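#dry-run=false #mode=assembly
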Amino acid sequence: MTTQTKTLTHLIREVRTCFNQLRTLAETLSADMEVNPSMRAIMESLSQKVPRTVPDLAKERGTSRQHVQKVINNLLDEDLVLTVENPEHKRSVLYVLTPKGDQVFREIRQREASPMRSLAQALDQSDIAVAADVLARMNQQLSHLINQGETK
Amino acid sequence: MTTQTKTLTHLIREVRTCFNQLRTLAETLSADMEVNPSMRAIMESLSQKVPRTVPDLAKERGTSRQHVQKVINNLLDEDLVLTVENPEHKRSVLYVLTPKGDQVFREIRQREASPMRSLAQALDQSDIAVAADVLARMNQQLSHLINQGETK
DNA sequence: TCCTATTGACAACATGGTTGTCGTATTAGT
DNA sequence: ACTAATACGACAACCATGTTGTCAATAGGA
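#status=ok
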């Protein structure tokens, strides 16, 4: 193995543990709330005030329509989301956050804010930017590789 | 939100998509093999020629003893792993890769090599190092935060 | 020797999905 | 306006990767 791929392997390992730690942190932060990670993700999409349909959200998040539907139904049950008539499609309604949903999402973000700050402070701003850039390029390359594999 | 936390958010998003893409890539690479990701991970630990017990592996990988046991049993079924008597403990045997297991793991690594090279080439070596370092420090900070949350 | 901790085995459950299928509403093409 | 194709919601079955709990046997230390 070349030294190049060795540092890359190292980076990949860090990415993995980072992902896992981020997830467990997020879980502990919202452990007492009625919002699970899937719901949080959908709420995040909806927090940008742009109403979306279920298929929209599925495309945006790269998951299946059916799964998003289930999550949205949970959100409806919890009054975190409400439907808005869709001028472009009568059956497929649009969804937005309810005031409660908005408030809950704000709460989530607030809880996340303090860890975020302590993370940001522990790192150099320009290093963060470099890392983000490296990963972005890596992701681009990865999506190439994945598409190649699919069409092959 | 400060610009600091904004670039950090950006980094986090990249970490997430990177993780996911790495996983789907790994899946496509070993789609035709009888080795799933859990098995691959255990095999990686065992590929270093140091025999380990199930509890050892569980500790090393940070997962439950019971889960590692199940994976090891799969590996035994597939003849990828064999038991070695443990001088330190009569009930808890040590595990090593069989010749077949070793060969299969080599095959896996070989398949992974070419994508790794193309990734490494797409990026600057020193940037990779910086990114790995940033994530390592971030992970350290994250584990602090997680432990805080647990003990609170 | 006796007590406690460790281990393997098994089962139930959780999470975050995917895939497949139906019926019908809706859209788009003509 | 009519029809064919499609998009959508609803539901169900399934899957992967775990976790947690429990039991009995056994190992190891005092």
